[in-house]
DNA sequence: CGGAGGGTTGACATAACTCAAACCGAGTGG
DNA sequence: CCACTCGGTTTGAGTTATGTCAACCCTCCG
């Protein structure tokens, strides 16, 4: 997974990658972005917030970012995670409709949206590519909806882990070792569960021998096949 | 809500409308579509299915359509509903990634995707508009995720009803009278609940005097303010 | 009249939430 | 080096909303 598949990035259960397009955008944006200075963000620092004027597109150089919406009563829905190479802030128009907050210390470059739009307005190909990329993000968002709606805690967590593993090397083998850059609270707010349920589910998976948890933020996937089965709704555990 | 905000159409809790763009696309597509013959679809008939080659964009002339994904084990996640004026099949590339099925007898026009792409490739403005429209759909999909993840049955149903009411006259007053074109099962699969819970929740809302249910497919919103409060997570009922 | 497809209602089971306590590892300061 | 704190995590006990299963109702339609 590369460029522009940012916003709900952590989530691609079933959508095939299409590197060609992203690459092309990547390059175009890269040209502009490479000149921009990288800014550092501390953990919990906001890159942008809901309601902020959407002036820039950002690319994560290092670290990690969560994207979320807040509800009236303080509940939080995380819509995705963005990692190095991902772009965020792209779909927005006028105002940002979500918050972007660093979950690990991050280096991030910004490019004015106006420039991008100026280029895009003259370049149908870039523009069309932009369109298709957003379409892919849309597909990803829908994948998440499918994972989130209607499914048990084990299914959600298993699917989450598998997606993280896949993310590490799109197209290639899923990684065995997954570092969770986010807290249990982040995972909970992403999957629509509570931190306790996340924790319990992980220990249950560990007890079942499907994963190992050498540290709380480090997961080793021991039985991908079974995890996959669980993610797809198979019984048991 | 008009053109192109189709796919997850039923859902715009907080995204503002931007008719200008949709209108512009609407017109461009309309030019092509008006020449196309309208085909009739019976209830439960598929317009397209997951995996079908994505050759056309469709506009609903009359009736209603549900858009959904199927899981391995038969569970179904409805991703949205499309109504007259809505376009479906737009984001797809290569293959359709979901199913579109009539939930009411429908008249639907099709336009070859190739034509649209041909036009778009030469017309940066149309293209940019396409991009922005998809971006809005993305926003809508995220709104749904927010509504679906983490929330109680009452909250979801209340939000659902309000959205249906708003849909009737975007920008204007929400309708008091809402006809449910979909079955309880459809609503359940949309909101990630069961038909029994939908039914119970509706009767609870009726008992509370917030809505009336003269027929099972007809809802009258009696207390929009309170419904809104519920949708936003207020206690009680 | 009878059957089928939806919808409602009830009794019961259970997965997930809530509240609460304890744990752990990483910093920090004495 | 140890004691302390703090944020995050784990675990337990008890509650509850929602799912499950089953019966029944209603309406439409042949």
Describe this structure in words.
Two copies of one chain form a homodimer. Chain A is α+β, with helices and mostly antiparallel strands and 237 residues long. Chain A contains seven helices and nine strands. In chain A, helix 2 (113-122) crosses helix 3 and helix 5 (184-191) packs across helix 6 (195-207). Chain A is globular and about 55 Å long. Chains A and B meet through helix 2 and helix 3 of A and helix 2 and helix 3 of B.
Keywords:
alpha+beta, 24% strand, 237 residues, 6-stranded antiparallel β-sheet, 3-stranded antiparallel β-sheet, DNA-binding, 7 helices, disordered N terminus, 9 strands, homodimer
Sequence-ordered SSE layout with sheet pairings:
Two copies of one chain form a homodimer.
Chain A: H1 19-35, E1 38-41, E2 46-48, E3 56-70, E4 76-82, E5 87-88, E6 99-112, H2 113-122, H3 124-148, H4 153-167, E7 177-179, H5 184-191, H6 195-207, E8 211-215, E9 218-221, H7 224-231
Antiparallel strand pairs in A: 1-6, 2-6, 3-4, 3-5, 3-6, 7-9, 8-9
Helix pairs in contact in A: 1-3, 2-3, 4-7, 5-6
The structure holds a DNA duplex (30 and 30 nucleotides).
- Order of H and E elements of chain A: HEEEEEEHHHEHHEEH
What is the rounded distance between the termini of chain A? 31 Å
- β-strand percent of chain A reads 15-25%
- Indicate the percent of residues in helices of chain A: 40-55%
Determine the mean pLDDT of chain A. Answer: 84
Oligomer: homodimer
**Rg of chain A, Å, rounded:** 18 Å
Principal-axes geometry of chain A comes out as: globular
> Could you give a short account of the major beta sheet of chain A?
6 strands, antiparallel
Low-pLDDT runs of 5+ residues of chain A are 1-21
């Amino acid at each position: 997974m590369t460029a522009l598949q940012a916003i709900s990035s952590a989530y691609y259960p079933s959508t095939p990658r299409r590197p060609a397009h992203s690459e092309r955008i990547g390059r175009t944006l890269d040209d502009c972005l490479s000149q921009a200075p990288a800014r550092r963000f501390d953990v919990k620092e906001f890159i942008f917030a809901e309601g902020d004027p959407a002036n820039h597109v950002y690319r994560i150089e290092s670290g990690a970012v969560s994207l979320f919406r807040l509800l009236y009563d303080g509940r939080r829905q995380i819509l995705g995670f963005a990692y190095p190479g991902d772009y965020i802030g792209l779909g927005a128009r006028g105002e940002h409709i979500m918050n972007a907050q660093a979950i690990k210390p991050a280096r991030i470059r910004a490019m004015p949206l106006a420039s991008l739009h100026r280029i895009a307005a003259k370049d149908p190909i870039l523009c069309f590519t932009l369109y298709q990329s957003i379409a892919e993000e849309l597909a990803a968002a829908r994948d998440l909806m499918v994972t989130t709606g209607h499914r048990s805690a084990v299914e959600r967590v298993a699917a989450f882990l598998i997606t993280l593993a896949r993310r590490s090397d799109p197209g290639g083998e899923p990684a065995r070792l997954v570092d969770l850059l986010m807290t249990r609270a982040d995972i909970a707010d992403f999957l629509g569960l509570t931190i306790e349920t996340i924790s319990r589910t992980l220990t249950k998976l560990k007890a079942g021998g499907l994963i190992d948890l050498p540290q709380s933020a480090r997961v080793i996937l021991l039985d991908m096949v079974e995890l996959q089965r669980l993610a797809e709704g198979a019984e048991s555990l």
